[in-house]
Amino acid sequence: MAPKGCCASICQCFFEYSTPKILIIRSFKVGTLNRITQALVIAYVIGYVCVLNKGYQDTDAVLSSVTTKVKGIALTNTSDLGLRIWDVADYIIPPQEESSFFVLTNLLITLNQTQSHCPEVPKTGFDCTSDRDCKAGSRDTRGNGVQTGKCVRYSAVDKTCEVLAWCPLELDKEPPNPPMLADAENFTVLIKNSIRYPKFNFNKRNILPYVNKTYLEQCVFNRITDPDCPIFRLKDMVTEANEDFQTMAVHGGVMGVQIRWECDLDMPSSWCVPRYTFRRLDNKDPVNNVAPGYNFRFAKYYKNGNNEETRTLIKGFGIRFDVMVFGQVTVVCDWIVLTCMTKKNIYNEQKYSYVDDFQLLSNETP
Amino acid sequence: MAPKGCCASICQCFFEYSTPKILIIRSFKVGTLNRITQALVIAYVIGYVCVLNKGYQDTDAVLSSVTTKVKGIALTNTSDLGLRIWDVADYIIPPQEESSFFVLTNLLITLNQTQSHCPEVPKTGFDCTSDRDCKAGSRDTRGNGVQTGKCVRYSAVDKTCEVLAWCPLELDKEPPNPPMLADAENFTVLIKNSIRYPKFNFNKRNILPYVNKTYLEQCVFNRITDPDCPIFRLKDMVTEANEDFQTMAVHGGVMGVQIRWECDLDMPSSWCVPRYTFRRLDNKDPVNNVAPGYNFRFAKYYKNGNNEETRTLIKGFGIRFDVMVFGQVTVVCDWIVLTCMTKKNIYNEQKYSYVDDFQLLSNETP
Amino acid sequence: MAPKGCCASICQCFFEYSTPKILIIRSFKVGTLNRITQALVIAYVIGYVCVLNKGYQDTDAVLSSVTTKVKGIALTNTSDLGLRIWDVADYIIPPQEESSFFVLTNLLITLNQTQSHCPEVPKTGFDCTSDRDCKAGSRDTRGNGVQTGKCVRYSAVDKTCEVLAWCPLELDKEPPNPPMLADAENFTVLIKNSIRYPKFNFNKRNILPYVNKTYLEQCVFNRITDPDCPIFRLKDMVTEANEDFQTMAVHGGVMGVQIRWECDLDMPSSWCVPRYTFRRLDNKDPVNNVAPGYNFRFAKYYKNGNNEETRTLIKGFGIRFDVMVFGQVTVVCDWIVLTCMTKKNIYNEQKYSYVDDFQLLSNETP
């Protein structure tokens, strides 16, 4: 083509359209072959991928149930409570949850609270010199009760506003260190996990077939020696997450127990075993350690002789273990691979059929 | 082509097969180039997409932990209880849950129940005129106990079947309006959320680095002034969901607190901040408002002087806040975009290489 | 082509490159048509699929809330407790959970426990003949307390190590059969489920519009007669999972209640109804039935006359019902189908445009 101005050539290039030269073969054999191939592909995509596999549903197809049972005894010795035993009914709160459990490891206890009047805990906003500093009925979210309007003596040095509250008030102090239930590190937990792929009618539990009652009564999980024992020592779990149990126990925290089922359902189901990993979930950033750990308040309610309600308030620090089960992946993955592979073959067939076309063609055109 | 019958032409068209004319280039340069390109694509798809990225696993890769802590005091004044303070240990039931918390806002209380005999609450099926109308041992699911077979006087006008139950029975009445714990609207909740993408070893919490203790002690979430404060006023959350707190508090309900982490991990992690949205989850359809709200019964158990068990039954109405964390999306999205982009480039390369082919071709064919 | 050595021909084949013969059409009409088509496709993919649809986000778009309310009365008659009524506040533990509920069906009760000394339960490791066999301070995870070092008489025949514990200790025995709360099979549960697709601003609850208060008060779910009644009899749920309620009630277990919302949002929303399925989630493998069922311990705490804490320990066996809501699928599916279809059309257009090209071509080349 003759040389032109740049602009012209670009413009020309823009309005240029390149299309493959098409050879039309009028042949019963080839035509049929072509249509059949097309039919095959369509049938495959619609029938197999969409109808049969429903691959996009697999992700919600896995069903899992988790139950946990903690065992262990802790002994505490405090001025308030004296020598006291803590068993599972005392330190698991609430007694049952869907897929997590909380173990009490440390606590601040306030005994014999009753609904009455007492001076607020000294804190900016609650200090006072005379009643004028206190507003009757004011309820500060940082406070422990509703102010009566009186200014009363809290200690030799302090005067604070009087409140209607559960008295005596909880003292705002740091949790004991070492933690009160330091023994908790030796508690063990049996985690029972059953999974099911309804579509494949596949069931499995983390208590493997060969595990018998006697083994289960004395085994403790250990990556090397007992990788299939579903009983875990709390300290081991925390240690695997590169945390120190006693340190974590002081302010509490959240641990993640991951159970992974990566089963190839085409393989013998005995190959399908759970893998356990442990992680600390709540952030304990040394740089910004505002509001660390995990704690909450709960109370035990009593009625004393003259039918008056009293309670024991407990600020409980502890470790919550969230059990998370992963298993869908496998199925989805299976499906993806399967699909791609099969598709690939069919595409190949097509490719070959093209090749055939040329042969047929060459036969037909003398 | 000569004119034919319609049917014939269709048939012909059906058995027609069109294929591009193929030009076979026998050239070391071109061939190599071609194979290399193919190898590149295959290597990319297998190696990068499948092995490295494992995109299909990203969805289960995000780990999140949520802990909540409610603060606030409510004051009630009823004939049953007199002046009474409600603090967190009283109105959070159960004291801890995995990723939700329930705040008691309204209640019907039945004091000093004991296991004894009393007349059923008047209701169709429980009214009677003589013992003949009552069937000993019958336990109606709508009833409160097991019938003794006696027909006793409930009030001046009513006679009902006697039951063995926790007596006195709870009266079947509407919850108080305004709600008893109307003060709950001023309660605040600190929501601590830590997320982690193990694969990317990326950690983040919703208490942002610059948030310090003093700020955290007095801040309250506000879209405009304090968008990063993780402390929320209950009323604000409900209002953002276009609901009226006091109305919702009467019969209770369920609120959803969504925390979205849409982080591009290629960007500085300081850009990765949570977005909070609030929605009412339980339906309050004005047209069909059958069984509205959320309530449940629980009891506090006591033993009186002569070691007899008594309990206080509470029908608690309140708002359950379900905290939901979304974060996987980002990663999956990243992956999708990334993949598409990279693919596109490679496809482009291919496209160019085709172009090259033609140039090479033109050089080769004098 | 002339016959050659095998190796040579393979090598040749390897360096062979086949490309379609390209016909370049220089035509304003055709070029423009071509560019427009390309623009269309690009616009569609970027604009519609990515920006508008955000298909990959749909999976986290569904919001669901579940609340449950159990009704029913059970009567037990034991030597410990005498004739006793159990109502919802007694047998639902904890009183509220996010999306599951536990119904107590069987129990072992230990009354009036106090912190004191008593002989361990006879078990290998706890039997002794003299104090030398007992180690003061030793706390075995299988034990119930901390050993005092004394060896005391447990029964006429047995001597065991004395422990500091909640005494008297719970006897290690099988749960009663038939289960104590056999009546639980007639309990009913109202399951309220609301779903929402925020993106489509679509709300729906499982209490369908036509269901009114009177119907809801007396209906019980039945696949044939009452498929839309959200009130389920516990026994029916267990039976649908091909389990026997009374058998399951003895040791307890975990049931899965699946609610499927498979709604085509293009159809009238009245077609969008939930489907309920019930499955037993925990494995009850007859071959390997180690640690069967589901149970946990909890306690009720009292204070006796002289302000000493006593408790009633209950080892509770029961059935936990986990409610699982599936609904995302539909949306994702919609989106997939939608996308593919639309793409297909556009591709078709392209195909046609190619065909047109040829016609245009034939017009242009006389």
From TrEMBL, chains A, B, C:
Keywords in alphabetical order: ATP-binding, Cell membrane, Disulfide bond, Glycoprotein, Ion channel, Ion transport, Ligand-gated ion channel, Membrane, Nucleotide-binding, Receptor, Transmembrane, Transmembrane helix, Transport
Domain of life per record: Eukaryota
GO annotation (BP), single: calcium ion transmembrane transport
List of residues binding ATP: K69, V70, K71, T188, N295, F296, R297, K315
Principal location listed in the UniProt entry: membrane
Topology in membrane: Multi-pass membrane protein
Location(s), subcellular: Cell membrane; Membrane
UniProt keyword Methyltransferase, yes or no: no
GO cellular component: plasma membrane; postsynapse
Glycosylation sites: N186
Reaction catalyzed: Ca(2+)(in) = Ca(2+)(out)
GO molecular function: ATP binding; extracellularly ATP-gated monoatomic cation channel activity; purinergic nucleotide receptor activity
Disulphides: C118-C167, C128-C151, C134-C161, C219-C229, C263-C272
PROSITE patterns: P2X_RECEPTOR
Role summary: Receptor for ATP that acts as a ligand-gated ion channel.
Family: Belongs to the P2X receptor family.
This protein's name: P2X purinoceptor
Organism for this UniProt entry: Salmo trutta
Lineage per the UniProt record: Eukaryota, Metazoa, Chordata, Craniata, Vertebrata
